[in-house]
């Protein structure tokens, strides 16, 4: 696939491992690799596991791109929001095995998946946009509003509160937390369980459940392009 995202298929389970420097920054090339890997997973009719390096899923968008200029920033955020929308409507189950920190776009990857497993430890999970001087984009707000518990949504989006893995379950970023050494097996166990569901029913039910959110995201992506551009 790509050195940025390795693709490993085994018994109907496709593991996509993000590997882009110390913080697994989400760059235009990473998003292109993500889309190529998801294309392959659809061809393989595989349940998807997305993971990162020990200690980190992703620290968010590549700041070099985000500070290169408005045009570059808008293009990257648009591509990232479009990827989130794609994950939310992916025809097969999507699991994120989060091996540590998940910040900003890293946390939005969690909010775009069907099932999320984190690891115990001193890790930060959350949306730090307003802390680093970025007004939250419309697509991010709508995604967080849909997937986070209401009280946590305001603390997260407006106040940039970061959560440890245990409180991230309560907030809505994660579904389960396991010891780090059990993450791989826990993700495979979840994938095997999800392999047993009816994929046609899964796909159509997912699209029904998320119909309103997907429509909001389509509108938000257009508004973000106008507002940020």
From TrEMBL:
<dbReference type="InterPro" id="IPR029045">
    <property type="entry name" value="ClpP/crotonase-like_dom_sf"/>
</dbReference>
<comment type="similarity">
    <text>Belongs to the enoyl-CoA hydratase/isomerase family.</text>
</comment>
<protein>
    <submittedName>
        <fullName>Crotonase/enoyl-CoA hydratase family protein</fullName>
    </submittedName>
</protein>
<dbReference type="Pfam" id="PF00378">
    <property type="entry name" value="ECH_1"/>
</dbReference>
<dbReference type="InterPro" id="IPR001753">
    <property type="entry name" value="Enoyl-CoA_hydra/iso"/>
</dbReference>
